[in-house]
Amino acid sequence: MKPLPESICHILAYHEILKDSSLLSGFQSKSADTYKVSLEAFREQLDAITNLTNSAPVILNPSTAEGWALTFDDGGISNYDVILPELEDRGWKAHFFIVTSCIGSPGFMSADQTRELHRLGHSVGSHSVTHPAGMRKMPAKKILKEWQDSKNRLEDILGESVTSAAVPFGSVDSASLNTLASTGYRTIFTSDPVSYPKNIKDATVWGRYTVTSKTSARKVAKRAAGKPGTFAGERLYFHLKQTVRSFTK
Ligand SMILES: [Zn+2]
Question: CA neighbours within 13 Å on the CB side: how many for 167?
């Protein structure tokens, strides 16, 4: 196993950014709606991060990971219509994770739009084929298929190797992460609210801080800047969940 990178990175996990709450982008459900952030709030958050860090987000790869980063899950149409222009205006790059069975469906990006993100220098990775809930409990064969098939589809679209992935609903345990790391992905993102990476096989696994419609600009900026104590409630909940799992397995 290779040594852990010494650096830390504060990674924010977003989903849809909406100009207008009536616009349909990404998955449509009450729980999905809690992760949809208004464009006004998003701009306020990016400005707050700029004021506090005076730095641009990084694109993580196996050799570079320091500072803060922006990630967007699911591949909703707002990724192209709303988020892309905001990032381009600032000259910033981000990670986008695509649910490949949704490509071209209503509310999601087309193959051409996905290719355009990649062409502009953003990182495009997999968010599985079907976005299953509770992936860590699925049979290894099914987990493998989700990651291999989505990788193949994205590589066909982009004409380039795809080496990053984000796990749907952050549903991971060490066995399911091992399965994912065996499919050729090198940079893997979970939803564990931590800033330090761990290595599994040849992959580096990073936690992320999920931003919801209720997260304040101040909190997002403090997290991007690595201020201690930010997202402490989320961390506590995460550790409690881990403890409960260790007793119920
Ligand atoms: Zn998702």
Answer: 30
| Domains of the chain in sequence order | 9-248 (3.20.20.370)
- pLDDT > 70 in the chain, percent: 97
Q: Token pair for residue 115?
A: 């290719």
Which three-class secondary structure string do you get for 28-96?
A: CCHHHHCCCEEHHHHHHHHHHHHHHHCCCCCCCECCECCEEEEEEEECECHHHHHHHHHHHHHCCCCEE
Residue 71 φ/ψ region, left for φ over 0, alpha for ψ in the -120 to 50 degree band, beta for the rest = beta
What's the gap in Å between 20 CA and the centre of ligand 1? 21
3 state DSSP class of 204 = strand
pLDDT higher than threshold 80 for residue 7? no
The two three-digit tokens of residue 185, written as one number: 């992905």
Cα(148) to ligand 1 centroid in Å equals 17
How many angstroms separate the alpha carbon of residue 174 from the centre of ligand 1? 20
pTM of the complete model: 0.94
